[in-house]
Amino acid sequence: MAQKIIVPDQDNPHAEKDILDKPAAPGPATYAELKAACAGADADFIVKQLDAGATVPQAQTAWMAELNKRATDAKAEAATAKTEATAAKDEVTALKAGRPGVKPLGQDAKKKDKSPDGEPDEDDEEVEGDAAKSAFNAKVHHYMETRKVPRTGTADQPGAIQLVAINHQKLHKQYLKATNPGKKMARMLDEKFDEVA
Questions:
Q1: pTM
Q2: Is 61 helix (H, G, I), strand (E, B) or coil?
């Protein structure tokens, strides 16, 4: 702010006139001035500027530089995260490719294994409720009796269940509906089995 200096007027010795002095150099900005001038600045930045005795223009220049630095850091961090995510995805894909086990039901629906009682039953009768449970369990026991694990000579129940599920999909669907009652579960099973077919 300019300072006001009053001096006698040379043309009129009884009058005084105002002479404006050179404007005073701006001093250190206050907290409120810095907060208003540097929109979005956090408290740490403002305190650093107060400690440095910065003026408003100096603080604004520093704030622009800080924003540019933060943007560059954020881009570098995003690039690193993207690289790590891609590497993790590739690792999961590699693990899935070499994973032991059996493919989920439905992926090889066209390549059905021959069952001990011949070809898969395409004409499985529509049974519901306890009848579906009994029919499914009877098929499993039949497969267990006809297929034994070679080394131990014992029945392979998980393998028998898998064969029944693959070779008798209609019966498997009815069995799942009977053991998982509810409209929502029935809808989900219908959708899942429609995807496989």
A1: 0.37
A2: helix
* HEC profile of 29-56: CCHHHHHHHCCCCCHHHHHHHHHHCCCH
Q: Integer distance in angstroms from the first to the last C-alpha of the chain?
A: 84
Alpha carbon distance 93, 95 (integer Å): 5
Q: Which of 186, 187, 55, 85 is nearest to 129 (CA)?
A: 186
CB 105 within 8 A of CB 165: yes
Identify which of 5-9, 55-59, 161-165, 186-190 has the greatest average pLDDT: 55-59
Task: For the chain, give every domain's residue range.
Answer: 4-95, 130-196
Question: What are 194's two structure tokens?
Answer: 């429609």
**Number of Cβ within a 10 Å radius of residue 133:** 15
Q: What is the CB neighbour count within 10 angstroms for residue 36?
A: 11
* Ramachandran angles phi, psi of 114, nearest 5°: -70, 130
Q: To the nearest 10°, report the CA torsion of 68, 70, 73, 78.
A: -110
φ and ψ of 171, to 5 deg: -65, -40
Token readout for 155 is 């029945």
113, 115, 119, 125 alpha-carbon torsion, rounded to 10° = -110
